[in-house]
Amino acid sequence: MPLSAEELADCRLIGIGGGAAEYWRRAQAPGLTPGGLPVPAGSGVNTLQEGLSLVAADRGAMLLCRSTADYHGRRDSLTFVPVQGLPDSELGLVRHRLRPSAQAEAFARAVGEATGTAA
Question: Which of the residues in the chain have pLDDT under 50?
């Protein structure tokens, strides 16, 4: 059953430590819900594995994009719950403009075919 974004006020969100940009920190662990309720801050981590370990130890929760949550959903100690009311997350392929590799081109074509978008 999904959570509403306002229910994040009841969660201690594990954030990103280190040299991450502020906009990325806010996206991963916002300080307020969209309605203005404060969201408790959890520990800051430097890697996804650190964060998942803290979640498994019941030290907080994390916001992940769906593809990352699906990939790590094999763990018995974690539950992935959709959150409604947050901005959609989008991923994009970044590659060298003038010299893309054959692998990057093949990946871009496969993603474009799978999503029905131009690569």
Answer: none
What does the alpha-carbon distance between residue 111 and residue 108 come to, in Å, rounded to a whole number? 5
Question: Residue 114: which residues within 8 A CB-CB, separation 6 or more?
Answer: none
Q: Using CA atoms, how far apart are residues 114 and 12, in angstroms rounded to an integer? A: 36
Give the residue among 70, 62, 71 at the shortest CA–CA distance from 28: 62
Alpha-helical runs (H) found in the chain: 22-28, 48-56, 66-72, 102-115
* Residue at token pair 């502020």: 22
CA 42 to CA 59: how far, in whole Å? 7
State the pTM of this model: 0.74
Residue 101 CA to residue 95 CA, distance in Å, equals 8
